[in-house]
Specification:
4-stranded mixed sheet, 16 strands, about 30% helix, JmjC domain-containing protein
Amino acid sequence: MFSFIDHNFSTKYWNKKSCEIKINNIPFIEDEIISSLLFYKEDLTKYQKINKSMDFITAIDNKLVISKNPSMLITKNESLDDYIFRLENSFTNSWCIAYFGLHTISSSIWDKIRDFSKKLNNNLINRPLGRIDIDCFIGRYNSTHTGIHVDHAHNFSFTMRDGKKMYTWDPLHKNINHIKYPEYNKYKNDSIILHNNKDRVCYFPHNYFHVAESPNKTSVVINIALWDKDDKKDNIYTYINQQLSCFVEEKNDINFYSGAVNLDKNFNKIILKINELKIEKILIQSIINQLIRDTSFYIGVPRPRKKFQKKEIFSIEKNSILQWYPLSDSIIFSSNGYCAKIKKSKEIKNLLEDLISEDRITYNNKSEQEKDIIIKLFEWGYLE
């Protein structure tokens, strides 16, 4: 699905320069994108509790509209072409709408981003620590309303409707930051131009200046953003350093495997300090952050929950991982960005080990505690 992430990409382009890479088809289906966009009209507040980055913004005549404009959102029973036609007839000038956080809603999109993250991890020597977002940009506009800017995220763009161009500049062009349309036109000759067409993926590194234009046609682009830094990890490290007077250096430890886990090596010295000061909540929060990060493959938000369906036998979803961390009297277990705590016992330990070594697991012969774990893991997407 993401076969373009290979040795050639990782050595020639990754974190070095903008590029276009030919692909046979994009990894996203129109129906799954439309069904995700529908939730922004009625359920945005609900999903923002799961992912604070989920939102939508609109821009008219290259200026951000401060107050939300729900009339620009897609409505039920509209196809993508119907939606575009309505917006084109509502706004004769420059307009754009951006939907952020589609993976918060759609399990199929979340699964694709997980596969993307695994592919990156297998092909990159030193992948970034930050979360992964997936966003949708629709519009016919002269320029991005922010003008030339830096995202601090690696960007991969897939096109559903042609028309967009991205002008990108390497980090040495610091003098162009925040210049807006049309003043930046004189710098275009120095840019690397990316053409957002269906037959290619467009990539630019996290520190590249860029601005988008789609002046002649309404373009639809799905963007994967891979953030350079892990905000949650930065926050917990800052808190630890302030509270414990124990400096912790951030390192790139990635644990994409199932089973019992330890805290990252750079936490070893703070565990001694935590035990000394008896501040267990910092340890617990560090464990939870790490489990959510690693079992979500750095997506940072959980896979959309599914409703439990009782069965005699459940199968293991092989692309997911299950991790746990044993405490003195309990176990924190995690999969697909979720965490829960359960009382420690040999029975529970055996169940967890069976869940990573077997292809299937029976339900009816289990204790209530074991059933509770199975129910959660089905809702989280580890069991099918």
